[in-house]
Every structure is written in C-alpha cells, then in structure tokens.
Amino acid sequence: MNIQTAIFDLGGVLIDWNPEYVFLNEFDGDREKMNWFFDNICTSEWNEQQDAGTPYQQATEERVQLFPEHEKHIRMFYGRWEEMLGEAIHGTVEILKTLRDSKQIRLIALTNWSHETFPIALERFDFLGWFEGIVVSGEEKMIKPQAEIYKLTLERYQIDPNSAVFIDDRESNVIGAIASGMKGIHFQSPNQLSNELIKMNVSCLKK
Q: Domain ends where: 65, 85, 105?
C-alpha cells in the first residue's frame, strides 16, 4: 500500500535540542563532569517523566531534595531550558515542506515533550503549523514507545497504520511504531530520510 500519512517525531528530527548548549559551559568545558551530571542527577529517565506529564516544578523540587548539593544545576535544567532549544534541522524541514506542498501525504507529529515547554517550540518554529495535528506526550500523560500513544494517534486522526510511516531518531520508538502496524524509519540524517521515503515510493521526493 502507498504511504498516505507521515508521522514525524520532532526533537532530533526537525528540531535540535541539546542540554549541552547550557551545561558544557557551566562545567567549564569538562565533558566528563557534565556527562556524570546527566547520568546521575538530571538523567534522561528523569526528563522523560516530565515528557510524560509530571510538572517540571514538582520534578525540580523532588530532585533538589534528593541532591541538594547540586541544586544550582538542577534548577538550571528547566530554568534555562529555552537556551537548550537549538535551530530547526533545515534538511528535514525541506522534506516536510515538499511533502506538504505535494498535497499527497497527510502530516502528523508525535512527540515526547513536556506540555509546559512545548508552547515555546510552537512559538519559535512556524513549520509546526504545517501539521494536521500534533500529539504531545505531556498532554496525553503517555509516552513513546508505549503502545497506547501510537494507538491514540492512529485513532484520533483515523490513520490506517498499513499506509503510515513513522519517523523518529530513537530506535526504540520506531520499534514501538512498527509493533503498532506502521512502517518505521530510524532517522539519522535528512539525506537518509529522503532516500528511505523514496524507497517507499513517496514520489514527490524523487528528483
């Protein structure tokens, strides 16, 4: 079946987000110290709790209680979150624009993102308005790769999974989408994404 719907992850696919933009300087360029902080204090698992709907103020206070000696840097994580938001990944935005202009492919976004910080991205990146709909994990209180969030997305927008492709920079999230019946692309670069979509006969990308 031809691809009729493309479901995009946002962070790491269309938008660059990286806490290094703040913390590497705060740790005086010491990457080892910075990585220790992310591995032990403000971990990716902790951040994902906010993506799943935990208010970031609550999460911050709980973490400060656990690690009071790191209070300054813990408060910095959401206090300076906007500075961690980089630029658009322009090559992928160009692919998105080509898909939009073709009027052949429905465009949906499915993102693990805090409902409290997502409005910042909405204000900054005009191309987020190109999507027919955006499912934000923090609003739904569920998170990729849980099966429920894929099911919700498919049902909300009446998407046939057999004609849908899901694009994400995290392989576990792609595996979750494939388990839900969709095709999947593990995003690594705009050029690789374009080539993968062409292999799926997305004709508007063929040169």
A: 85
